[in-house]
Design a protein that fits this description.
single chain, about 120 residues, about 80% helix, about 0% strand
Length: about 120
């Protein structure tokens, strides 16, 4: 994993989580600013997915370890669009809570990728 990319994804996830929490607290619906941050996070996650695909051969420990590494890296890009879609369809305060939870999940899974499979150390 690339440490600068991990830091950028942490930052984008944190910004998205704080924005979503603020919006939930203020009882606001999703808007273009939240979607912009989610889009930037998505771009970073797609870059990370490419890095995962390129480096899956470097993972030691057998097929199960490689499959887990690939699963982490390739499922992460689905989280921001999914939570954004739910927030657009759901018109309550809890929609932004879902966005905040999704951003937190992205941060945790990205951290696990860096922690377990730091192949460039």
């Amino acid at each position: 994993m690339l440490f600068p990319l991990t830091v950028a994804l942490y930052a984008a996830s944190a910004i998205l989580a704080v924005m979503a929490g603020w919006y939930a607290w203020r009882d606001r619906l999703i808007d273009d600013r939240v979607l912009l941050v989610a889009g930037l996070l998505e771009i970073g996650l797609l870059v990370q997915a490419v890095v995962v695909l390129v480096s899956v051969g470097d993972v030691g420990g057998g097929g199960a370890e490689k499959a887990t590494y690939a699963a982490y890296g390739l499922t992460l890009p689905f989280v921001p669009p999914a939570v954004a879609f739910l927030a657009i369809k759901e018109k309550t305060r809890w929609a932004m809570g879902v966005v905040a939870a999704g951003a937190f999940a992205v941060a945790i899974m990205t951290g696990r990728l860096q922690q377990i499979w730091d192949l460039h150390a």
